[in-house]
What we know:
By secondary structure, the chain is an alpha/beta fold. It contains 8 helices and 8 strands, in the order βαβαβαβαβαβαβαβα. The chain has helices at 12-25, 47-66, 82-88, 96-107, 121-131, 155-170, 188-195, 202-215, and strands at 2-6, 31-35, 71-74, 93-95, 111-115, 137-142, 176-179, 199-200. The strands form 2 sheets. A 4-stranded parallel sheet has the order 2-1-3-4, with helices on both faces. It has a 4-stranded parallel sheet with strand order 6-5-7-8, sandwiched between helices. The radius of gyration is 17 Å and the shape is globular. The two termini are 29 Å apart. This is Asp/Glu racemase.
Amino acid sequence: xxxxxxxxxxxxxxxxxxxxxxxxxxxxxxxxxxxxxxxxxxxxxxxxxxxxxxxxxxxxxxxxxxxxxxxxxxxxxxxxxxxxxxxxxxxxxxxxxxxxxxxxxxxxxxxxxxxxxxxxxxxxxxxxxxxxxxxxxxxxxxxxxxxxxxxxxxxxxxxxxxxxxxxxxxxxxxxxxxxxxxxxxxxxxxxxxxxxxxxxxxxxxxxxxxxxxxxxxxxxxxxxxxxxxxxxxxxxxxxxxxx
Length: 243
């Protein structure tokens, strides 16, 4: 199967790292297509970044549909444009936060989230409520690491992240850790070894869910909320969405 993994920011190094994480866990007959938009923020760390990136994500979804991919993954912990992507896609669309929560709820009684900056914590809490996992989460913590610092992670920055994970376990009562940024995807195994608890990377989780849906021949229902968008005219820079 062909799996399109969209990094919604424009940092090419992060796109490549996300692609490596996906390939490391994918089946031998799965083809990983890692991509990112041509326009938008270098990193997504606030509501403005996410809103602008969301429109660009939809352009990549459309390209993936033209390429005949079997699944799309939105590799940003905010799951930007997820509902809209499911409206326009014919294949399943998976957000990495939703995927991580699902797997964490299976392997632990309560999970903690460790993300990048404190200003992104309300977004993580919103997703917990949206997906119905708030009662299974022991809390969300921020390591105060800018997203782009994850591209070339220094040892002291890794220790900073590990310490927040330890606090989530020892102080908050987490039995597993969900990493709150797709840019952390390559750190999951090392952190799990250090912490001796499951550490869930949403990119890897989404890849395995995509492969499972494909094998089960399940795709997004096109009735109700995820039916095709209502036909109408768009003008200006978004006229390509006219139907």
